[in-house]
Amino acid sequence: MPELKEEIPPTEEVVTVLEEEISTVESTVQTAFESSDRFYSPLVRNIAKEEGISQAELDQIPGTGKDQRLTKTDLLNYIKNKPSLEKRPLAEETQAPQTKAATPPISERVPAQPSLGGGDQILEMSRMEKLISKHMKSSLETSAHVQSFIEVDVTDLWDWREGIKQSFLQREGEKITFTPIFMMLTAQVLRDFPLLNSSLSGNKIIQKREINLGMATALADGNLIVPVIKNADQLSLVGFTKRVNDLAKRARTGTLSPDDVTDGTYTVTNVGMFDSLMGTPIINQPQVGILALGAIRKVPAVVETDKGDFIGIRRKMILSHSYDHRIVNGAMGGLFIKELKNKIENWDVSQQV
After folding, report:
1. What share of the chain is helix, strand, coil (3-state, %, to 5)?
2. pTM to 2 decimals?
């Protein structure tokens, strides 16, 4: 993605939209956790696990929520009123009593206070940082993250872009980077893997008709925002380049509209702009996949020819694909980036833009 230098926060409208999306994610999280025929929220499950309450015991606790669901309050009341001492085994009763500090219920525990030194500072998280933190944590609690990686030879594509970038700039008034090229090819591959252009609501898969690519963009203050390119599979390379550059510029100047950051169906992030070889990005809920573009490097590689193999200098990168293993298996996740690799390595170097 283009380097961002100005520290200008997103507009208030955009932040509000992000808050609404996180509320939607939290609703998805609630419906994603089920146990046999009874619903339990992630919070209830975590409390039960902390307190050593078995699944069978959990199923017996009366619930006062909607449809007799077990709420946090129901569970905490049960824990509070539960006898603190169970009947101990006979062998334990014959031994001298030992002093052991009781572990307080989770509802009564106080978070450990950080140890502060003389030069330490306490910084309050910004509103945007709090939103991102909540969004990322919700994603990890919702999706079964798994990753696939593949190395791609981009030498021919690199040489082609070097040959046309000046004429493209003069004709279109825009710089052409690798980001719109990779995103355009990703949108094309998504047409062949529609399950990756989906979302999951409870036990129902919602397969999206439109391919709307999110473009994870780093702001100067370290925060992220994800503007969306709508109907990405219908854009030409020229159209894609102009759209990417426009969204990056408006993200930099804090002039994105709410429509610019909503309705994404799949996300691409460029970790290579920080010289990272690869990454394991967190899925942008409620989507089921995200692609990370690694740095392009010159490396020694085995080159196969009809006259034999030799060692040559090639430009290569690594694609990292995170996907939701609840509905996308490893074969599909791996085949997706394999097909993207084929499109990149077989780029038509004779084409004009």
Report:
1. 45, 20, 40
2. 0.67
